[in-house]
Design a protein that fits this description.
alpha+beta, two-stranded antiparallel sheet, 9 strands
Amino acid sequence: AGKGDVRVRQVLGHTSGVPGWTPPITVEDLIDLERSEALLAAEAPWYEPGSAPAYQLIDHGHLLDAIVRGATGRPLADVLHEDVVAPLGGGFHLGVPEDLLDDCADLIAPPRLELDPDHPPTDFLVRTILNPGLSTRTCNSAAWRRSAVGGAGGHGTARGVAQVQAVVSHGGEVGGTRLLSPGAVDRIWEVQSSGTDLLLDVPLTFGLGYGLATPAAPALPGGRMCWWTGYGGAIVVNDAETRTTFAYAPNKLATHLVSSPRTDAYVRTAFD
């Protein structure tokens, strides 16, 4: 459907041209990875792939799951758990095991967002956040927590997130476990896209699989740093110069897409 020349690096850099679904889908469709991935395979690009960043808000994990499943025959969640998280001590799940469901803290919804008439949300943002709409009630359900929606369904402690991500800040090896070569880590800083994101409407620079320094997130350290954040204020920052990884995983959500005062304060304090 016009995506034959899209590269894996463009998916990792949020320039695939497919930041969401056009046909109306339900949360049940979203959880059914193979069904929702087939719909993405049939999706025509929303804009010219590779020409600009458009944050793959929810479907990023679906796109990566399809790539990993096609290359290895294993779902992304299995590769993540068996090859990445388990060797590094656990603490993060894409699909929470039944015996750990009670460990999940319920999400508390952020304050209602007041729309700025001078800066309305982008068409792409409206198309993605409403298809399907994800409420805190949905995300607190056992069905959602058991699912493996990679773009929005990861569950873990801040320490668990940081322990896994420290592979990046430590040059590909942490605790005696090497998962990435130094050369693979270096590629994270190869800029894949830079400019105003067509979905979030803020200036963003994406490397390979991570965001890089941007004025839209002023609390981030400069230099050899990569990061990403989540709706409500969760964040992880890898600083390869100081071999430091910082993660923050709140359950009380703030009004936050890329930056917000609470998250910025924690990031500044940690790196100070």
